[in-house]
Amino acid sequence: MTSPLISVIINNYNYGAYLARAVQSALDQTDVRAEVIVVDDGSGDDSRAVIESFGDQIIAVFQSNAGQAAAINTGVRHSNGEILCFLDADDWWTPNKLAATAAAFAADPRVGLVYHRLQPINTDGSNAFAPIPRSLCQGDLAPLMVRSGGRWPFPMTSAVSVRRSLWNQIGDIPDSFRISADAWLVGIYPFFARVAAHPEPLGYYFIHANNWYRAQDDAAMLQKRMAHWDATVAATNQFLTERGQPHRLDLAEHFPYQTARARLQGASPAARLALLWDGLRDPGEPVLARRIRDSMRAIRDVSGTGMDGADPVGAP
Fold first, then answer.
1. Residues 275 and 157 occupy one common structural domain
2. Distances from the Cα of 191 to the Cαs of 15, 21, 141, 181, in angstroms?
3. Domain of 108: which CATH number?
């Protein structure tokens, strides 16, 4: 076969119950040349036995716990492919995922990141809701990201692939991204190369008791998300400065951040109206119907008193 070698990087931490499904889905890919690297980040469950059961079908790496970013970085260092595809240990792919990804990279040499939708799956195997992200963005996304505080309907780790040459140019994911390392990939790579989106769901996102997904966010989760956005934007701006890039992000333009702040602190009627207006104009959601829906939901969830007892946003 003349197709480029693709490296699949699977990061795992205590997901031994799901890991075999993820690995097998990577091994079952069709019409591509691929290697599968599984990095276990110091698991305390039966992950080692699961990994070793695949023998020489995979490249197995075991390390002390250092976080998701460090595990992915380790996997890349053990890989040889021209295309790097990332897979969380609790997710899995359709058999044509790698072939579709390789075709998207081949179609445009300016593309540095390719992604697709994922189908969310409940623990009982049923579809949880429509494939995500629902809106797709591609091309030169840097101007959009500057206007939205870095927000776009970006994919999760298991849907992201990048060119090895661009990874070499940008470097490792900072180890501070112990979780949500995909935030670095989707937040940095669009400033250096074009993005391509495949419209079909080429994988499955497993919904269970993980760190981020909640059917309804409480105050603790909102605070966690805001802290994550603060740290991500700070790291992004520092990196862009160091690389001589003119772009900078501002969380004042980040609609979910401002919504979370208003939910926590409460908002005056005038502030809620201003938030609605910002949501209707939010460039981070390119589809008008979804902007309207998201803005109305945001206003519905913002009260005058908030969750943390602070002074209402916009109060005199």
1. no
2. 33, 34, 7, 17
3. 3.90.550.10
Q: Are 184 and 228 in contact (CB under 8 A)?
A: no
Residue 212 lies in a domain: no
Strand-pair category, 33-41 with 59-63:
parallel
pLDDT of residue 316: 45
H or E element in which residue 88 lies:
strand 83-88
The residue with tokens 């997901």 is 15
- Reported for 236-240, long-range contacts at CB under 8 A and 24+ positions apart, including other chains, are 236/150, 236/187, 236/188, 239/188, 240/191
User: Which of 15-29, 175-189, 238-252 has the least mean pLDDT?
Assistant: 175-189
User: How large is the angle between the packed helices 219-242 and 255-265, nearest 10 degrees?
Assistant: 140
Residues 6+ apart with CB under 8 A from 278: 255, 258
Q: Give the percent of the chain with pLDDT over 90.
A: 86
Q: Are 94 and 76 in contact (CB under 8 A)?
A: no
What pLDDT, in 10s, does the model give residues 65-120? 999 999 999 999 999 999 999 999 999 999 999 999 999 999 999 999 999 999 99
User: In this structure, are 101 and 249 located in the same domain?
Assistant: no
What's the structural domain count of the chain?
2
What is the reported pLDDT for 165?
A: 97
Please report where in the chains the tokens 């190369």 appear, as a residue: 193
Contact assessment for residue 163 and residue 105, using Cβ atoms and an 8 Å cutoff = yes
Is pLDDT of 18 > 90? yes
Characterize the bridge pairing of strands 83-88 and 160-163. Answer: antiparallel
Q: Judge contact between 307 and 219, C-beta under 8 A.
A: yes
Joined together, the tokens standing for residue 174 give: 């900072």
Q: What is the Cα–Cα distance from 21 to 231, expressed in whole angstroms?
A: 33
Instruction: Round to whole Å and give the CA distance between 69 and 42.
Output: 13
What gap in Å lies between CA 68 and CA 153, rounded to an integer? Answer: 21
